[in-house]
Design goal:
single chain; about 400 residues; alpha/beta; 6-stranded parallel beta sheet; 6-stranded mixed beta sheet; 12 helices; 14 strands; globular
Length: about 400
């Protein structure tokens, strides 16, 4: 009983630090620096629509549009009939949620979809058909379509030129590629092996709620093992090497997304070797990844460090003498992906490198990347014709 009483007092004392906040974030956010990639303030003004703005990713899109000073002429928020009529306070004014309608969405210059793949499959092409809006889709619906760009702007932003529908990558892929791409340009990647440590928020608010309530029930002595409905097994005080459905080859779909999307975004061969093991861990937010690469060219650690330190969207955190390295605690709420623990691989020797990355998957892996795609398209003049009309 004394242990349970102590656990109870600790939980009461600390729970506010971990309780999701109702604004644009699940956790208290630090001041977020503007990315090194561009400044939105000088871009042509556009009419923006968001479908799913009251969900986890949708709220983050609104927040990123605000913090990046995206050139919004007018903001429209579309939702279900249940959400219609509600108001959302934004930097762009008070916005009343409209019930989703394809014709209304087509009136926008760009529409961000933060909804399910089924919804995107049903409506994205109708919204983006000739004369309609550019659609930037956060679901997996179109990622593997040959005719649809899958974009990380710092890597292949040029692929968006002339596009009416652009796919946002899986969050795990986007975070890892921020570090892999500069290294590929420097040493030419030969193979990639990745293990991921993914936060509960990857399963949305229900996943976070299950982690919080389950942790509380165990610490309070109500249960020896937490209940699980969202995850395959109880997540508190556990790790689960299972995210998404298992495929015939023994990998999960989440793991195969990293393989498929890395090849497409980096324009690599269809048989380029990329392997991933995805693990769910009991943290709220920010995914971590341990990455091992074999390279065609010998690795120079100092050149690698310089390349990563200067790459847009990355923050080098690699000072082991002072115990500084990437962590979810420091990456949460940040636009830049943290990268550190750089070292030559004991397996691949001079042609191998191992490192660790951590990034906020709701930002770099979703909302931020989507907004950067929008900025890239504004700069390319993709909205010029509608903006004049």
């Amino acid at each position: 009983m004394k242990i349970h009483a102590l656990a109870s007092s600790l939980l009461i004392a600390t729970t506010s630090a971990f309780t999701p906040t109702p604004h644009h974030s699940f956790l208290p956010r630090r001041d977020v620096p503007v990315l090194k990639t561009s400044s939105s303030s000088s871009l042509k003004m556009v009419n923006v629509g968001i479908v799913g703005a009251t969900g986890a990713v949708g709220k983050e899109i609104v927040g990123v549009l605000e913090k990046r000073s995206f050139p919004v002429t007018a903001l429209k928020i579309f939702g279900s009939s249940r959400s219609a009529g509600k108001t959302v306070e934004t930097k762009f004014g008070t916005v009343t949620v409209d019930e989703f309608d394809v014709d209304k969405a087509r009136e926008c210059d760009v529409v961000f979809l933060a909804v399910s793949g089924d919804f995107a499959l049903e409506h994205a092409k109708a919204i983006s058909a000739e004369g309609g809006a550019v659609v930037i889709d956060n679901s997996s619906a179109f990622r593997y379509d040959e005719d649809v760009p899958l974009c990380v702007p710092e890597i292949n932003g040029d692929k968006t030129k002339g596009a009416k529908l652009v796919a946002n990558p899986n969050c795990t892929t986007a975070i890892g590629l921020m570090a892999l791409w500069p290294l590929h340009k420097l040493f030419k990647l030969k193979r990639v092996m990745m293990s991921t440590y993914q936060a509960a928020s990857g399963a949305g608010q229900p996943g976070m709620d299950e982690l919080q309530e389950g942790t509380k029930s165990v610490l309070m002595g109500e249960r020896e093992v937490a209940e699980n409905n969202i995850f395959a097994h109880p997540l508190p005080f556990n790790v689960i090497p299972h995210i998404d459905k298992f495929q015939e080859n023994g990998y999960t779909k989440e793991e195969m997304k990293v393989t498929w999307e890395t090849r497409k975004i980096c324009d690599l061969a269809d048989d380029f070797p990329v392997s991933c093991t995805a693990v769910r861990i009991p943290t709220y937010r920010a995914h971590s990844e341990s990455i091992i690469v074999e390279t065609e060219e010998p690795v120079d650690i100092e050149k690698a460090r310089e390349a990563l330190a200067s790459a847009p969207g990355l923050k080098l955190v690699d000072d082991t003498d002072n115990e500084k390295y990437p962590m979810p605690l420091t990456a949460t709420g940040q636009y830049d992906v943290e990268v550190g623990r750089l070292r030559k691989s004991l397996v691949f020797g001079d042609n191998g490198l191992e490192f660790f990355v951590c990034g906020d998957q709701l930002l770099r892996g979703a909302a931020l990347n989507a907004v950067l795609v929008g900025e890239e398209m504004v700069k390319n003049g993709e909205f010029a014709e509608k903006a004049v009309a």
